[in-house]
Specification:
The chain is of the alpha/beta class. The chain has one domain: 3-Layer(aba) Sandwich (Rossmann fold). It has 7 helices and 10 strands. The strands form 2 sheets. The chain has a 6-stranded mixed beta sheet, sandwiched between helices. A 4-stranded antiparallel beta sheet has the order 2-1-4-5, with helices on one face. Helix 3 crosses helix 4, helix 3 runs parallel beside helix 5 and helix 4 packs across helix 5. The longest helix has 16 residues. The two termini are 34 Å apart.
Length: 242
């Protein structure tokens, strides 16, 4: 059985322009073509300014392309309204960022429940779902702690739980180990590998070679284009950290 194409982009261009008639244009993406299959673990790598984070933002419906087409599960998203794209993000995607993006003075439990509130799930049900998801990342004993009081590694585990709580089709991660020490980063890597082993589609932007090589596939970007798209030979595998 042929693997299902989950994401497809055609001739994707993104141009940023400063305010003013004579301002210069910055072409962050210069015509990207890409397909990602359901269940793949893909890393996107490249030097600063290569367009990798811009690509992730557009794939995650956090930004719109200037030109080109984006298909998700065979549906073209280019003409969706902002509200329709927000619905896609909440129902289909989970996000993990370098800066964690947690509410510091709010408990872990309340942070993880946020996507479920936007989804309109009742309070008793969202509490139950959030508790199970927090348990999956090993933080049940801290679920009532304020997020600001956690270590960097623990904050990123909360961010992973929040990304997973709505059972997304795709998990997007932008430099998820960038603010962590090597030990905490290795723990987060193992979480992502376990998530992939359970069938999640993961799209990861990283400058960490070891993390990138743990994916099935590496997409190398430069000057807003895909320069190389390769399967990862000798892919690392790790057990799940309890």
């Amino acid at each position: 059985m042929e693997d299902k194409i989950l994401i497809k982009i055609e001739d994707l261009v993104k141009i940023y322009k400063e305010d003013g008639e004579d301002s210069e244009e910055t072409r962050a993406l210069a015509g990207v073509n890409l397909e990602i299959k359901e269940g793949e673990f893909v890393s996107i790598v490249g030097p600063s300014g290569s367009g990798k984070s811009t690509l992730l933002q557009i794939l995650g419906c956090l930004d719109r392309p200037s030109r080109g087409k984006y298909f998700l599960e065979g549906r073209e998203l280019n003409h969706y309204s902002d509200d329709e794209l927000a619905k896609v993000r909440n129902e289909k995607f989970g996000f993990v960022f370098q800066a964690f993006n947690l509410l510091g003075r709010v408990s872990i439990l309340e942070n993880v429940k946020l996507p479920l509130i936007y989804a309109g799930i009742s309070e008793p049900e969202r509490t139950e779902i959030a508790k199970k998801t927090i348990a999956a990342v090993g933080l049940t004993d801290r679920e009532n702690y304020e997020a600001a009081k956690l270590s960097g590694g623990q904050k990123q585990r909360v961010a992973i739980a929040r990304a997973l709580v709505n059972a997304p089709k795709v998990i997007f991660a932008d430099e998820p180990t960038g603010n962590l020490d090597s030990k905490s980063g290795a723990v987060i890597l193992k979480f992502f590998e376990e998530l992939h082993s359970k069938g999640n589609t993961i799209i990861l932007v990283t400058h960490e070679t070891y993390f990138a090589e743990s994916a099935q596939r590496m997409i190398h970007m430069k000057d807003g284009l895909v320069k190389k798209d390769e399967k990862v030979a000798g892919r690392h595998t790790h057990g799940f950290v309890k």
